[in-house]
Amino acid sequence: MRFVDTNVLLYAISHRPDEGAKAARARTLLRSRDLACSAQVLQEFVVQATHVRHGADAMPRADAAGFVHAMTRFPVQPITASLVLAALDTSTRWQISYWDAAIVEAARALGCAELLSEDLQPGMDFDGVRVVNPFA
């Protein structure tokens, strides 16, 4: 199973001409059956996709809700106290932000071998969770 980070979801809804190739790749990825994500990823997606700074490109909240609902066809890791504690340890051990560590630990909790993200160093292996930049 592969874990998708928020940036994959955001590219999937992008209509920006300079993100055309990434948008197409993200949409192709989301047609896969072996994906997973977390409640954190879905929350970040809603906040970013509907943010007013996107102006006319901001997604209406109802559309964002529909997108999130569609994403629940994949396994979604909830935010739990044990996940938070594991993320704190991972953040310290690997010297990464708490939020990135929570993504790594959510991927681990779901048994994902790959974390699809452009936000972490490609090829980095967090004890069995390897970062892959799907847009490289």
Which SSEs are present, and which pair or pack?
Elements lengths: L1 E3 L1 H7 L7 H10 L5 E4 H11 L11 H11 L4 E2 L3 H14 L3 H12 L4 E3 L13 E3 L4
Helix pairs in contact: 1-2, 1-3, 3-4, 5-6
Structure description:
With about 140 residues, the protein is α/β, with parallel strands linked by helices. The protein has one domain: 5'-nuclease (Rossmann fold), CATH 3.40.50. The chain contains 6 helices and 5 strands, in the order βααβααβααββ. Strands 3-2-1-4-5 form a 5-stranded parallel sheet. The longest helix is centred in the middle third of the chain and has 14 residues, at about 80-95. The mean pLDDT is about 95.
Question: How much of the sequence is in beta strands?
Answer: 5-15%
How many strand units? Answer: 5
Q: What is the name of the CATH architecture? A: 3-Layer(aba) Sandwich
User: Mean pLDDT across all residues, rounded?
Assistant: 95
CATH uppermost class: Alpha Beta
Order of helices and strands: EHHEHHEHHEE
What is the makeup of the main sheet?
5 strands, parallel
Oligomer: single chain
